[in-house]
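Notes taken during the Thursday session

The instructor put the following on the board and asked us to keep it in front of us for the whole hour. The protein is Chemotaxis methyl-accepting receptor HlyB-like 4HB MCP domain-containing protein. We were told not to look anything up and to reason only from what is written here. First, the residues (261 in total):
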Amino acid sequence: MGYRFRLGIRPKLFMGFSIITAMLVISDALSILEISRIGKQVRRLLSDSYQSVQYCQNMLQAFEGQRYALLENLGADSARRIELRKAFEQASTRFKFNMALAKTNLTHESEDLLIDSIERYHAAYLQQGYMLLERPQPSLQHYLELRRGPSTQLYGAVNRLLAINQEALYKGSTLLEKSPQQAMRPALIVIVVACLFTFMFTHLISHYYVSPIIHITEAIRQHLKFGRYRPPQTNSHDEIQDLREAIDQLVEAHQEERKKR
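Then, after some discussion, the predicted structure tokens were revealed:
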């Protein structure tokens, strides 16, 4: 007879339950990794978007300071006009500083072009703003011309940039709400596979262990009641087969003893 690989009941059961346990551990690990990955992405998105919102709000405040200085300059005396020019320059510096920060903190592909537009509009606004400050007698008409031109374009561009980042904040918060569900998807797949394996493992136990034991028990009962013994079939090469062979030998010995009597 050729060599047959023999694997006992204990190793088989151990392997089966070990696989189920490994699948459950893998599902937990996948969930933890997915939650960590999504959490990092969401935190980075929220942080960058929040900073960009702050930069936009600072730019709008600086822009309002520039417009206020130009408007008050219309009826100011020479001493006050010097102070207003300094205030205009300080507001311009704050605007450029926050614009530079926003340019290094891009969260959307369209922001780059938008910030370039803001930079151009602000340069044009500064040029006309300084021209208005240098006029000996600036008029309201000059101020309104400036406000209808680069001022409106600059204000609109900054608000569009603000809206983009506010929308990114909303999307980030929505993604944060949905992240547990997304993180559970790979784990659910592993759990479903584990359930299928558990069903198959239970079926194998029933087919290779429970059913043979039932057949062996029924064969012994038949032998005890009617003296007939039909060796039950076993499909496994393990302790179940050893048990059947031992019972076969016992029954055979019992039958031989009966014949001698």
